[in-house]
Amino acid sequence: MSYKVLYYNWDPYFEKKIEGGGVSIYCRNLLDYFNNKEDSQVNFLYSGFDYSYFRRDPYIKKVRNKRHPHVPTFSLVNSPVAAPSYSSFHDPIATIQNPDLEKCFQQFLAEQEPFDIIHFQNMEGLTANCLKLAKESGARVVFSLHNYWAVCPQVSLWKWGSSACSNYLEGRACVSCIPEKIHWDLQLTNKKINHLGSLVGQDKEALPLQLVKKIYEIFYVRKFWSQLRSPTKSPLIKQLEVTGTELPQQAGLYRHRRQEIISLINRYVDVALSVSERTTSIYKQYGVDPARLTTQYIGSKAAQFQVPSNNPAAYSPGQPFKLIYMGPPLKYKGFDFLLEALPSLPESELRSLDLVIASRISDPTELAKAIEQKGRLLSLAQSLHSLRYYPGYSYENIPSMLDSIHLGVVPPLWEDNLPQVTFELLACRVPVLCSNLGGAQEFVRHPAFIFDPALEGDFQYKLRTIRENPHLLTEFWKEARLAKPVEEHIKELIEIYQTDAEKPAPLVGVDECYVKKLNT
Length: 520
Fold this sequence. Notes:
Elements: E1 4-8, H1 21-35, E2 41-47, E3 59-63, E4 73-77, H2 99-111, E5 117-120, H3 130-136, E6 140-145, E7 158-159, E8 163-164, H4 172-175, H5 184-199, H6 207-219, H7 221-228, H8 246-268, E9 271-274, H9 277-285, E10 293-295, E11 321-326, H10 335-341, H11 347-351, E12 353-358, H12 367-381, E13 386-390, H13 398-401, E14 407-410, H14 420-427, E15 432-435, H15 441-444, E16 450-451, H16 458-468, H17 471-479, H18 486-498, H19 512-519
Parallel strand pairs: 1-2, 1-5, 2-4, 5-6, 6-9, 9-10, 11-12, 11-14, 12-13, 14-15, 15-16
Antiparallel strand pairs: 3-4, 7-8
Helix pairs in contact: 3-8, 5-6
């Protein structure tokens, strides 16, 4: 690849412990590929992560990339825009424009040799106006839509911590969407301590830094314990003071944020890459120019997994049925839904169910929630044939963990753009039962394996139907789509980079017949 490309993500993918989830893993996979190509000219920039005790103004510095030493890597230090986006939820205008940050970003682009491609994996840590600056630098601008940042300040379209958001009521729903105060002072201090440690060669997980942060938390105890309280389902459970004139004004800020960001995308982004057709549909609904939208399913290293020797696992009615949930124990991921749905199964079905949970239920910021979830899980275990619990897992151990598993469940309650766990299950030849929200259904495709979480009893009905009709576990593979290798995905990505800006980008990796079926 003869192009000079700048990749942007708010989280430094090369750190030992990443904070950006699947997007950071995706960045790691991209740079792993390009790092082995002699003709590649890739650079990486991140922002909203490093903060300094010694300067307040935003500035960009070159940093050491331990994973890819030959990839020029830069950090925008002291970004006025907090990252991840949730941290700046209560300041919606800050994500649109900030003169100090944009001057810093523009100077960086000018000082580097011109980039041919600037590929934003997200915009958290920057302002939307940076899209304009990137385009004015002469680069082709690509923006991957891994989440819903452009239309939702907390990126997930998840309302009040309890349900998918399909109507923001012209910004009024956003005003009370996150009732708890976000303690940015605490987060900022932790980021400064981490950055200070990096200057003297200390990893952010190093014991000395952990002790310093813990001491600070003790001094911060009053606010800190306030932060530990789990958000309420309704913002009106707590005392609230707001005047009738303030509410429309606050709502207007969130409405302006959405409208302005969509406008900037439509004016300055050459290609907006959706990671699923469902994501494309949602962004079209909210006003992104369809001519700029392209669906491109990303590649996954899971495609290289060695299929477990006992998979696809054979099943006959009457024998124990092995069901697995993998992923974080979060409500919007469907974990609580699963804990509520399984106990409602008939006793005979529970007694023949082997449940496997691979999830680290130990969130220190929501200790009461973690205790509740573990209690419910242990209570459920008394009714099961067996329960196996993994407190987290490594990527390398996924194939062995999935050996002999009959079915994986991916039950998001939000429009999850494309859950990576779907790739991992399918790569190990484990059929998937998923919800009809988000992009997972585009890889499952068989109607017997897609349930509606809003339809009471539908999950239980679909699970029972699969168990009573084992032939469905075989038929599943006639419809299912496997994840493509990272190398194949990157070849398609390069094709998009090379596409003439005047021509629409190709629809990559998508079965157009299935897309028509999905949208009907």
